[in-house]
């Protein structure tokens, strides 16, 4: 159901001729018709952040935004002031059509870094999308298609709270890394909530979802997650329920990214328990998630726990306390490493499921963390070597 | 010429039946016949360091060693006290044959993590290698073959100082990462030098060679570099010349590892200049070297500088100072990124050479550092998914 599941939102997705793929929808427009226009955003921390990120960060800083324009087919990153002017012009075009200020329009772009967008196509696309704006299910679906790049399927979310709704869409399949994946995400709600409530809910939810997936360790220049509230349900939600729904939306969308990561044949859930602190558990889980050797082994259906522990062993002691002789590793429920030594025979591990569970116990404390990753396949290399 | 190029050293390489590959030489023996027995060692910092690393670190701590036994076909890592006892037994067997103490024999192993070695094969192999010990060129070549795993060719070094010689061999092609590659390396010299001189020379040389290559970002449990001096030339070398020769040996052997990295089709030299400090330059070079997306692009012969700058941008500001708007990137001499924006057209870059030069200028200071890396290819995935 995507972003139009929540009341008060219209959307569209059109083929603006930005992407090199003929006939592909490549421009999405999401409009918040109110009565509220509260917004919260989370953006990439990449120091080469793209022009649309700079624009949108400023646009949502006051907690208000009435629309978002998103395009695939070009990241508009590392494009200097000319690129920033393109993001500004895109917002201006949308704002003029809606009769609002450009500063109330966020802009998101995804695609190749280092090239300007074909601005006439973007402008014409915003006009076409404006004409196509609708509140129905198809409009939300169209928008979720328009933001796809190497994604093989649209990724959406819809859930009902007590008297209000939450909907969302995300794109992302490459450059998926700890500090936000290469992704554009818009989540909408018709609940009556303030921008502060939105930002609090989104900050926590993003930390435990988008910031805990790692497909290829590469941080994007364009990551953007926006959470917009229209208030159209006229319902003030229970804060805990609302936070929980936002967390569910982010978790679901992040999990869908992992499930559609470039070339992946396995989704890998890495849980590190028995850590002194959650941060230390996270450092360990991320180190394992980043191991190319482990990712290749999983592609080859080998529960190679030696590649798990050698990743852990590379972590400096001050970053995560554990004794190498006490570490246990289970893969899909079989404890293959027992106190840093061989445990049950790895031939007992069933590697056929798509989902691979790696459970590590450091035996150093009580805290834990989970990171999702993928395997490293021929198809990943194909996609990233022979792309266009 | 390998390790027997220096006078005072004998070596052998035999098929001991440790490796699963029929007929493959898998056990090397290097003996220092003196008159000196000075040694220096550098070892992995992985916290799951293998039994032979624990054994050898202790064995060379006093600056004396008379022999090394090296095996492929099994890493003897994460094997607990039983594994340590295997390393000890291997040293004891060699020591008994040579009429020396076990504590004067270093042991190195490489192969799969998490399994004990077939000790009878190792013991029989040490006996066979002892019988085959010789000082000639072929003996050094045999030893360099016996330590290979996924290496496609032996890697050796030989150089002449003023009245003395230096020889060496190394293995390594996977688990190649910043804090020592997955490698076993033995360098020999007949110069008259103390263990302290050896350690000083090796420490600096390893830092600028083995610690500055990164094929797949994975730190091994077994890395070992040994530098042994026999004093057989009776020549006390000029310290600067000697240090320089040791640096040349390490640089050459490290470069050979990059050139034979698993599945690589390009060797990538990443130089970061204009940094405030050498450490900050190194942080940047390593971040670029670790980008899977960049490595895939290079395999696809695309000079994708967006993947260079997005890697740089992921570095926290406190780890490396630079202004994203001032960063230049050249690939094979063509400045494709000029001040964070597009420079010359990337179609001008000739990507056909095996060696790809990525030159980054941060314009933040005067210091620089170089890291060698490789591309990420189908063959890398093959080797690490469908290995045996």
UniProtKB/TrEMBL annotation, chains A, B:
The record marks 181-182 as: Cleavage. It is found in: Cytoplasm. Pathway: Amino-acid biosynthesis; L-arginine biosynthesis; N(2)-acetyl-L-ornithine from L-glutamate: step 1/4; Amino-acid biosynthesis; L-arginine biosynthesis; L-ornithine and N-acetyl-L-glutamate from L-glutamate and N(2)-acetyl-L-ornithine (cyclic): step 1/1. GO terms for cellular component: cytoplasm. Keywords: Acyltransferase, Amino-acid biosynthesis, Arginine biosynthesis, Autocatalytic cleavage, Cytoplasm, Multifunctional enzyme, Transferase. Its EC number is 2.3.1.35, 2.3.1.1. The active site is at 182 (nucleophile). One of its GO terms (molecular function) is L-glutamate N-acetyltransferase activity, acting on acetyl-L-ornithine as donor. It is an enzyme of class 2 (transferase). Its main location: cytoplasm. InterPro entries: Arg_biosynth_ArgJ (IPR002813), ArgJ-like_dom_sf (IPR016117), ArgJ_beta_C (IPR042195). Pfam families: ArgJ. The record marks 110-111 as: Involved in the stabilization of negative charge on the oxyanion by the formation of the oxyanion hole. It catalyses: L-glutamate + acetyl-CoA = N-acetyl-L-glutamate + CoA + H(+); N(2)-acetyl-L-ornithine + L-glutamate = N-acetyl-L-glutamate + L-ornithine. Substrate binds at residues 149, 171, 182, 262, 384. CDD domains: OAT. GO terms for biological process: L-arginine biosynthetic process; ornithine biosynthetic process. PANTHER family: ARGININE BIOSYNTHESIS BIFUNCTIONAL PROTEIN ARGJ, ARGININE BIOSYNTHESIS BIFUNCTIONAL PROTEIN ARGJ, MITOCHONDRIAL. HAMAP family: ArgJ. Catalyzes two activities which are involved in the cyclic version of arginine biosynthesis: the synthesis of N-acetylglutamate from glutamate and acetyl-CoA as the acetyl donor, and of ornithine by transacetylation between N(2)-acetylornithine and glutamate. Belongs to the ArgJ family. Heterotetramer of two alpha and two beta chains. This is Arginine biosynthesis bifunctional protein ArgJ. The gene is argJ.
């Amino acid at each position: 159901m995507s972003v139009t599941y929540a009341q008060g939102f219209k959307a569209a997705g059109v083929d603006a001729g930005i992407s090199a793929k003929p006939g592909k929808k490549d421009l999405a427009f999401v409009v918040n018709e109110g009565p509220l226009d509260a917004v919260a955003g989370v953006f990439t921390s990449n120091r080469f952040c793209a022009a649309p990120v700079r624009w949108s960060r400023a646009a949502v800083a006051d907690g208000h935004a009435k629309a978002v324009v998103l395009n695939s087919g070009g990241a508009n990153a590392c494009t200097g002031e000319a690129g920033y002017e393109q993001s500004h012009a895109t917002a201006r075009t949308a704002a003029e059509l809606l009769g609002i200020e450009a500063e109330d329009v966020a802009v998101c772009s995804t695609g190749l870094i280092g090239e300007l967008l074909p601005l006439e196509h973007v402008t014409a696309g915003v006009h076409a999308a404006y004409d196509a704006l609708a509140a129905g299910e198809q409009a939300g679906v169209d928008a979720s298609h328009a933001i796809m790049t190497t994604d093989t399927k649209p990724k959406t979310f819809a859930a009902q709270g007590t008297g209000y709704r939450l909907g969302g869409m995300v794109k992302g399949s490459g450059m998926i890394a700890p500090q936000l994946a290469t992704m554009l995400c818009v989540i909408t709600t018709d609940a009556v909530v303030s921008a502060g409530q939105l930002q609090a809910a989104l900050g926590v939810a993003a930390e435990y979802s988008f910031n805990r997936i790692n497909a290829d360790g590469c941080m994007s220049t364009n990551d953007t997650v926006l959470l917009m509230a229209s208030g159209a349900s006229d319902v003030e939600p229970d804060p805990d329920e609302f936070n929980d729904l936002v967390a569910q939306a982010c978790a679901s969308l992040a999990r869908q990214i992992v499930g559609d990561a470039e070339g992946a044949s396995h989704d890998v859930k890495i849980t590190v328990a028995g850590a002194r602190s959650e941060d230390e558990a996270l450092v360990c889980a991320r180190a394992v998630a980043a191991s190319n050797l482990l990712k290749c082994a999983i592609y080859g259906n080998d529960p190679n726990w030696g590649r798990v522990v050698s990743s852990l062993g590379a972590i400096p002691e001050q970053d995560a306390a554990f004794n190498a002789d006490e570490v246990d590793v289970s893969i899909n429920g079989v404890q293959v490493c027992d106190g840093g030594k061989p445990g049950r025979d790895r031939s007992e591990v069933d590697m056929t499921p798509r989902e691979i569970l790696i459970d590590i116990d450091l035996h150093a404390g009580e805290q834990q963390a989970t990171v999702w990753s993928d395997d490293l396949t021929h198809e990943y290399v194909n996609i990233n070597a022979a792309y266009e």
